[in-house]
Write a sequence for this structure.
């Protein structure tokens, strides 16, 4: 077993934590109570890499681990200190790696275990920690466990999954997110039984009620932590526990299936067991996808005295963006509410985009060339100045935009393709469906990373597995690296600002100018420091009425070269002031 030292970007000496040369005193206000509440994972900036689309080293058109290795200096140059990597385990790729066929091996498309070891070493040498995706609500149907499980009703692996013998008739309906008929029960003639799959047919749900399954997962986790990784993102984990009697659910349950699927009895016991067996023995971070149905659920997942996880991320914030736009008042209300509920206890994750969402700037900002850069920087400012651990998706630092696909043939995501088929089958208005899909498909966020103006944006010398966005000649890393005012260099500056100022991590959050429908304004306070953040969410000039005296305020960062001095904000202007 490896017990790691807490290292952060500083060192712990006799209980005194030194971060980036700053001596940090214990926060006094309502937030964290004492030194012991300070954690590296709270102070981290997490950069998410979608390996399939990041960098291809061998010309097969698919990003890979050697590609990531070749870009480690770039990742370090961002100033981020944690990378979350989407699944890289062996997989037939029905859902781009979220269907794992061997949890202890690397997907062929991505490379070898030797590549993995080299990548991890390279990250650690650069002070970057690695968080792996742990996909254990389900496996692939090509995993050995499932092959055994489906082979016979008497297989020792039968109870690794959820089976319903057809002798009993059809089980009560369950909604599947990715299935072409949205039917989560798949009939398998080998043993005349149905198996459960909340996602695609090739993603059968594991039976967490079986202690052997839990032990297998804990062993897998230990395998990776012993290799030296620094944490796990628990994929779809809120759905892992199930009522295995499969009672009939009320009509229309599928419209709010989380209410019926998430946080079922047993889930917290499984997490406590995981914590006891694995997490508590190492200095690793843990974050769950999904935070249940209530603040109570969210607290029960992450409060330190629960001994379960460090963080969970809820979808309420990320779900606000809609094709027709969204209310800034609503946005403010949601994020303020979550902050206040976690102000005393627990810890938040802050994110507006990931591999399951369309692009940040296209959904929450304005990707018109006139506003793309400023609005993208404004959103970055929001993510980097809120309390909680920021999760930032690769490519957003360039302000990469939605793919602009109009033909279904350009899409690759199984969920999108199956939904297209489903909509066709039920005679839906396909033009409308394509319009919605162009705004929201996950493939929008999965087009290759735009490195330079060369063919395929420098991502591959082969044919990319998904089309490169047409705008790569104007939006790419090489151009932005040279431009001090680019979104990329703005991102580097604001990451540094966050890392240098614990007030942005731990400081008390207070919403100001609450009723302003266009500007999001808030303060962050810690000890004697007070920052004010003003964000104009509109493509027209707006004024913030913070009620605070700005005459002596110092501008720490602004997304315009001529910063505002009086609270009058240019379109999508973002400014961080130091008041005290
Ligand atoms: C999570 C992942 C998503 C995946 C699904 C099934 O939501 O983020 O990409 O398709 O789980 O594993």
């Amino acid at each position: 077993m490896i017990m790691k030292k807490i290292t952060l970007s500083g060192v712990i000496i006799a209980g005194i934590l030194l971060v980036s040369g700053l001596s940090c005193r214990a926060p006094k206000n309502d937030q964290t109570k004492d030194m012991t509440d300070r954690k590296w994972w709270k102070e981290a900036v997490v950069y998410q890499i979608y390996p399939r689309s990041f960098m291809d080293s061998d010309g097969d058109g698919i990003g890979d681990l050697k590609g990531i290795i070749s870009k480690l200096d770039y990742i370090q140059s961002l100033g981020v200190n944690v990378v979350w990597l989407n699944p890289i385990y062996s997989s037939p790729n029905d859902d781009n790696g979220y269907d794992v066929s061997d949890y202890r091996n690397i997907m062929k498309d991505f490379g070898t275990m030797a590549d993995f070891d080299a990548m991890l070493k390279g990250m650690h040498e650069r002070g970057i920690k690695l968080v792996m995706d742990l996909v254990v609500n389900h496996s692939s149907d090509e995993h050995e466990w499932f092959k055994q499980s489906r082979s016979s009703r008497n297989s020792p692996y039968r109870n690794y999954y959820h089976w319903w013998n057809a002798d009993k008739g059809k089980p009560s309906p369950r909604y599947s997110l990715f299935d072409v008929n949205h039917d989560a029960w798949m009939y398998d003639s080998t043993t005349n039984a149905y198996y459960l799959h909340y996602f695609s047919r090739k993603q059968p749900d594991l039976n967490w009620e079986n202690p052997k399954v839990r032990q297998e997962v804990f062993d897998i986790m230990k395998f990776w932590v012993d290799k030296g990784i620094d944490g796990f993102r628990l994929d779809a984990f809120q759905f892992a526990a199930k009522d295995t009697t499969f009672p009939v659910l009320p009509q229309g349950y599928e419209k709010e299936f989380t209410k019926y699927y998430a946080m079922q009895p047993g889930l917290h016991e499984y997490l406590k067991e995981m914590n006891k067996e694995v997490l508590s023995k190492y200095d690793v971070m843990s974050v769950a996808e999904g935070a249940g149905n209530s603040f109570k659920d969210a607290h029960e997942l992450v409060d330190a005295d629960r001994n379960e996880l460090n963080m969970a991320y809820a979808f309420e914030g990320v779900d606000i963006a809609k094709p027709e736009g969204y209310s800034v008042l609503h946005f403010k209300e949601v994020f303020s509410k979550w902050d206040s509920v976690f102000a005393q206890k627990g810890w938040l994750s802050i994110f507006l985009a990931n591999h399951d969402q369309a692009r940040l700037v296209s959904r929450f900002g304005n990707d018109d060339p006139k506003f793309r850069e400023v609005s993208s920087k404004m959103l970055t400012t929001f993510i980097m100045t809120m309390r909680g651990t920021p999760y930032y998706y690769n490519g957003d630092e360039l302000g990469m935009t939605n793919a602009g696909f109009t033909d279904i043939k350009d899409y690759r995501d199984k969920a999108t393709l199956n939904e297209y088929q489903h909509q066709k089958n039920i005679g839906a208005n396909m033009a409308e469906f394509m319009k919605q899909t162009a705004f929201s498909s996950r493939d929008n966020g999965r087009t290759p990373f735009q490195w330079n103006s060369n063919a395929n944006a420098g991502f591959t010398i082969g044919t990319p597995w998904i089309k490169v966005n047409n705008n790569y000649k104007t939006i790419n890393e090489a151009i932005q690296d040279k431009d001090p005012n680019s979104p990329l260099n703005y991102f580097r500056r604001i990451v540094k600002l966050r890392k240098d100022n614990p007030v942005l991590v731990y400081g008390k959050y207070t919403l100001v100018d609450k009723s302003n429908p266009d500007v999001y304004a808030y303060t962050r306070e810690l000890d004697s420091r007070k920052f004010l953040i003003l964000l104009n969410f509109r493509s027209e000039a707006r004024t913030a009425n913070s009620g605070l005296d700005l005459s002596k305020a110092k501008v720490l960062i602004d997304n315009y070269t001529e910063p505002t001095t009086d609270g009058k904000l240019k379109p999508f202007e973002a400014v961080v002031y130091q008041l005290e």
